[in-house]
Write a structure and sequence with these properties.
single chain; about 240 residues; alpha/beta; 10 helices; about 15% strand; elongated
């Protein structure tokens, strides 16, 4: 709230504050085929210890339960995705597994995180907590929140709904720059984007104007090099522009 880490738009500070003031228990267990296995090791009676390796687990098990070479089995569940993702700002540079190395000292903290507001607590808040806990520093200086891309009916675009446009198809039809411009012009910071194909058409018209203007300037350059006198007002009017 003191903007040690700045949020853009700043309205999302209140959502962040609400999450932090109403923290609930976090179920870290997931039934997935991929991810980091939970480092809990169980014997046949259900007693368990936590260790990075089976050998380490047996050593701890011996100390706690006075049992040598216990038959231990690791928990089959994985940790929640965010459990590892919250380490990302510094562990991507081995800042936890190899603390103090030159890369993490140079790159941490980072400058700007760009993400979506629906994962403020799942990712942003947890990266901040982990940064202060394990590095003693904030992980980034500012967070820029984008909006969610929705269709004309206001539905979030998803594979299950089949309402996501084919980007390559749009690029083939209107051109990459037209698609970029069409999305950019209808995307206010922090607000949802109600995407419509007509934005690409607007982008195509704009890029076409820019292209014609460039051709006009190049034509003037050719006339100047030939010693001719350009007629800017007349030529600008041909591409729909006027001199004030």
């Amino acid at each position: 709230m003191d903007e040690e880490i700045k949020f853009y738009p700043s309205k999302f500070k209140n959502l962040y504050r609400h999450w932090m003031e109403n923290i609930k228990d976090w179920c870290i267990s997931r039934q997935l085929w991929w991810g980091h296995r939970i480092p809990a090791w169980y014997d046949e009676e259900g007693r368990f210890v936590v260790a990075a390796t089976k050998e380490g687990a047996q050593k701890i098990f011996k100390e706690q339960f006075s049992i040598n070479n216990a038959q231990l089995k690791q928990d089959e569940d994985c940790l929640d995705t965010w459990f590892s993702s919250w380490l990302w700002p510094f562990e991507v540079f081995k800042g936890y597994s190899n603390p103090g190395n030159k890369d993490v000292n140079y790159y941490y903290p980072t400058n700007t995180l760009v993400t979506a507001p629906e994962i403020i607590f799942f990712w942003v808040a947890r990266m901040i907590m982990a940064g202060y806990e394990y590095k003693g520093q904030k992980p980034f200086n500012e967070v820029y929140f984008t909006g969610i891309v929705r269709d004309k009916q206001g539905r979030k675009m998803s594979k299950s709904l089949g309402n996501s446009p084919d980007l390559l198809e749009m690029i083939d039809k209107d051109g990459a720059d037209a698609v970029r411009f069409g999305i950019m012009i209808s995307s206010p910071a922090g607000n949802d984007l109600m995407w419509d194909p007509s934005g690409n058409e607007q982008g195509r018209f704009f890029i076409n104007k820019m292209w014609n203007a460039l051709k006009l300037v190049k034509m003037w350059e050719g006339r100047l090099s030939a010693g001719d006198s350009p007629r800017p007002a007349e030529n600008l009017q041909r591409i729909g522009l006027k001199i004030a």
